[in-house]
Amino acid sequence: MVFLCIATVSCKQDKKPSNSKLDKELEVELDTTDKVVKFQNSLFSVPSPYQLSILIKDIGSNYNSELLNPAENYKLYTSLFKKSINLGIYGADLGYLNIYKQAPSAITYFSIIKIMSQDLGLTSAINPNIMSRIENNIDNQDSLLFIMSNLYRDVDYYLKESQRQREGTLVLAGGWIEAMNFLTKLAIESKNELLIQRVGENKQPLENLIKILSPYYNESEDIKKLVDDLIDLSYEFDGVETTYEFKAPTTIPQNRITKVHSISKIVVSESVLKTIDTKVSNIRNSLIK
Amino acid sequence: MKKSAVIILLILAINTLTNKSYGQIDSTLRLCQSHMNLPFISDGQSYTSLLNGDEVAEFYATFYGGSIYRLVAYTGNSEGNIIFSVYDQERNLLFTNNDFENTSTWDFEFDYTMDCIIEAKLDSKYINSGIAVLLIGFQQ
């Protein structure tokens, strides 16, 4: 099933050869041997959008409300696809608002998330106490991020449990796309090396996201377009230069920690960064309409 | 009539087994969560894999440089049944909890961003089948 989907994806890409690096990687990763179990699609991780927002604040970027999906847009989302993906987008926006301590707007975005969760039938996934905990901690950055992350994880788990992995994956995709939109915009604006590097470091998470979404490729035109757009974006990441050098890690048993010293270097040229930004914006803007 | 009864019984049995499995995952997930407290924040996902015998589950994750992460892995409700190992992109072993009595929780600090593979398998000395649950969290 997965191979069929990937084959279809490959055929759609007339811009690049069908035996591209990405296609090969997809085939290898999705191959099933008798020793490696592939259970649903939960084996590929996508970094938390909150982590990117924290970095953005740490480098000193100012709050910019124009980066957010306008609150009133939620009324536009009637399909399951749009509701799911924008639940992820609004979740990333709420994290951004919280990190910049924008409590009044955070309350508005939280209300929208609550409505959309109900629309998606996620009420039973959410511990009744969690909503009041969020309301009580709306201006407490640490607690809210902790509670929201747990809420999204509970939703992820519930959707998997109730055979609604597709919606769970779309929520995840929405969060990643929105966080990448923050990141690429601010990387271009600030020219901050760390932000630019972090854009390049999202090559693997993007490939993971494509792998998670691919099984649903033929289930709707919306998903087909999203996967095609993400694959198109992933080709731009081929322009990101990476080097890797293994260094032995240090494990400190008494602190129960391993310090990993291997060196990876990433170079993202200005033109590659601009192209990635344009493509991320186009994908994101088509999703929030 | 007999055929219908058999089908109904089969459906009931499957439902019971499914509910039992999810109930088990649910309690394992809560156990994992008890090790993922502030300052660690969940990445918003739950990773689960059904394992039998010597099967291995692989989890692909990217860890950002300059960050500290926590991995928590359990199967069932007791510690020590699951062996998890972290490899870099070239399959160099970075850590295995098997060196520390299969501890369920370990932290990792990354100097540079790395794409890693986390392998999880059951310790056949203690268990032959189960659902592995893995959580990843980052420190704020």
Structural key phrases:
heterodimer; A: about 290 residues; mainly alpha; two-stranded antiparallel ribbon; 5 strands; globular; disordered N terminus; B: about 140 residues; alpha+beta; Jelly Rolls; five-stranded antiparallel β-sheet; four-stranded antiparallel β-sheet; about 25% helix; about 45% strand
Topology, pairings included?
The complex is a heterodimer of chains A (289) and B (140).
Chain A: H1 2-12, H2 21-30, E1 36-37, H3 49-58, H4 80-99, H5 103-119, H6 128-136, H7 141-161, H8 165-190, H9 193-200, H10 203-213, H11 221-236, E2 241-245, E3 250-252, E4 257-260, E5 263-267, H12 270-288
Antiparallel strand pairs in A: 2-5, 3-4
Chain B: H1 2-33, E1 40-42, E2 47-52, E3 56-63, E4 67-75, E5 82-87, E6 93-96, E7 105-110, E8 114-122, E9 129-139
Antiparallel strand pairs in B: 1-9, 2-9, 3-8, 4-7, 4-9, 5-6, 5-8
General description of the model:
- The complex is a heterodimer of chains A (289) and B (140).
- Chain A has one domain (47-288).
- Helix content of chain A is 62%, strand content 7%.
- Chain A has twelve helices and five strands.
- In chain A, strand 3 and strand 4 form a beta hairpin.
- Chain A is globular, with a radius of gyration of 19 Å.
- Chain B is an alpha+beta fold and 140 residues long.
- Chain B has one domain: Jelly Rolls, CATH 2.60.120.380.
- Chain B has one helix spanning 2-33; strands at residues 40-42, 47-52, 56-63, 67-75, 82-87, 93-96, 105-110, 114-122, 129-139.
- In chain B, strands 1, 2, 4, 7 and 9 form a five-stranded antiparallel sheet that branches.
- The chains are: A mainly alpha (289), B alpha+beta (140).
- At the A-B interface, strand 1, helix 3, helix 7, helix 10 and strand 4 of A face helix 1, strand 2, strand 3, strand 7 and strand 9 of B.
- Strand 4 (257-260) of chain A pairs parallel with strand 7 of chain B, so a sheet runs across the interface.
